[in-house]
């Protein structure tokens, strides 16, 4: 992951004066997910899937009207196209595994293909494809939104940026040049991790979700009958003075690896300081968060 992140920063950030954070990070998180779940590394292949995926995401939370032209209809078609790609990939991988030309532990796709339940039953091809689609969905926009918001706050709070930079430089200096980040290094990122947690408290990527009561129950003096539709709201919990600051620590590997690599190389200013955040459905800067990059004189 560290190496892929360094390559991403070299290609998409270095040598540029201004970068739009949100769309750039969107490509990065999708690339990471494709690598981790399916070992797809070819840029063209990833970009083709990413384009379909964007259409899919736009229709996930929309009115379920399946007629041509609606967001929902486009999303259904895009999901079918992605499933087809993944199905093809699964078949190729099964062949490669049979011929011992792929490893059973190389990624999630291999794992799902070779693993059975206690009764020896394997997942069907469609179940494997849907599992990967779910994980691509769950990991992509959430992480993009979180990293973009971290970049926004670090530009707005130079004191916090300096503390993050110091922590990351200390970690970089404790390692031999060129040695990649290890799990132990991530565990040392205590301050950075708290910054990420705090950003996600203030701007949670997921604002809430739906539930259905499966039994009658009482909450805060209210009787909730079985079958009631409920919505849980992240914001009200995150802003509850009784609960905060005891919120549990959230350690997110991909965000910390990105943070390590980006603060080591750059400082940045927001090109549009008062840029609005829109919720679609994740917090997203309306203009993609353009930033002016200022490379450090010497990078570690
Ligand atoms: C900043 C990043 C992330 C945030 C804020 C986030 C947030 C959430 C939330 C709030 C839920 C609960 C949804 C519900 O119960 O209705 C959820 C579920 C889930 N997330 Fe994430 N997530 C993040 C990253 C990831 C990543 C990187 C992965 C996969 C590698 C992932 C995989 C999943 C899965 C599979 C579920 C469903 C779990 C279940 O229902 O059993 N998420 N996530």
How would you concisely characterize the structure shown here?
The chain has 300 residues and is of the alpha+beta class. The chain has one domain (2-295): Cytochrome p450. It contains eleven helices and nine strands.
Architecture overview:
The protein has 300 residues and is α+β, with helices and mostly antiparallel strands. 55% of the residues lie in helices and 12% in strands. It has eleven helices and nine strands. It has helices at residues 2-12, 21-38, 43-60, 71-98, 108-114, 125-156, 158-173, 183-187, 190-202, 234-238, 253-265, and strands at residues 18-20, 208-212, 217-219, 222-224, 229-233, 266-270, 277-279, 283-285, 290-295. A three-stranded antiparallel β-sheet has the order 1-9-6. Strands 2-5 form a two-stranded antiparallel sheet. Strands 3-4 form a two-stranded antiparallel sheet. Helix 2 (21-38) packs across helix 3 (43-60), helix 4 (71-98) crosses helix 6 and helix 7 packs antiparallel against helix 9. The site of protoporphyrin IX containing FE has 10 residues, from helix 6.
């Amino acid at each position: 992951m560290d190496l892929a992140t360094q390559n991403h920063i070299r290609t998409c950030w270095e040598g540029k004066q201004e970068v739009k954070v949100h769309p750039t990070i969107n490509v990065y998180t999708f690339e990471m997910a494709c690598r981790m779940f399916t070992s797809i590394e070819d840029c063209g292949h990833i970009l083709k899937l990413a384009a379909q995926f964007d259409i899919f995401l736009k229709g996930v939370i929309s009115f379920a009207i399946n007629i041509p032209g609606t967001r929902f209809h486009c999303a259904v078609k895009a999901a079918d196209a992605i499933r087809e790609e993944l199905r093809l990939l699964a078949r190729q991988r099964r062949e490669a595994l049979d011929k011992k030309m792929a490893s059973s532990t190389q990624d999630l796709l291999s794992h799902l293909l070779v693993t059975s339940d206690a009764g020896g039953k394997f997942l069907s091809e469609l179940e494997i494809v849907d599992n990967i689609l779910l994980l691509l969905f769950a990991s992509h926009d959430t992480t993009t939104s979180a990293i973009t918001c971290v970049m926004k706050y670090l530009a707005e709070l130079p004191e916090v940026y300096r503390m993050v930079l110091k922590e990351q430089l200390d970690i970089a200096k404790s390692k031999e040049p060129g040695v990649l980040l290890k799990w132990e290094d991530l565990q040392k990122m205590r301050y950075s991790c708290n910054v990420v947690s705090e950003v996600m408290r203030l701007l949670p990527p997921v604002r809430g979700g739906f539930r259905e009561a499966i039994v009658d129950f009482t909450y805060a003096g209210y009787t909730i009958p079985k079958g009631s539709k409920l919505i849980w709201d992240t914001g009200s919990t995150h802003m509850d003075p009784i609960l905060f600051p005891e919120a549990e620590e959230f350690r997110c590997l991909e965000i910390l690896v990105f943070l390590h690599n980006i603060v080591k190389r750059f400082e940045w200013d927001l090109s549009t300081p008062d840029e609005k955040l829109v919720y679609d459905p994740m917090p997203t800067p309306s203009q993609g968060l353009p930033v002016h990059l200022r490379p450090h004189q010497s990078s570690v």
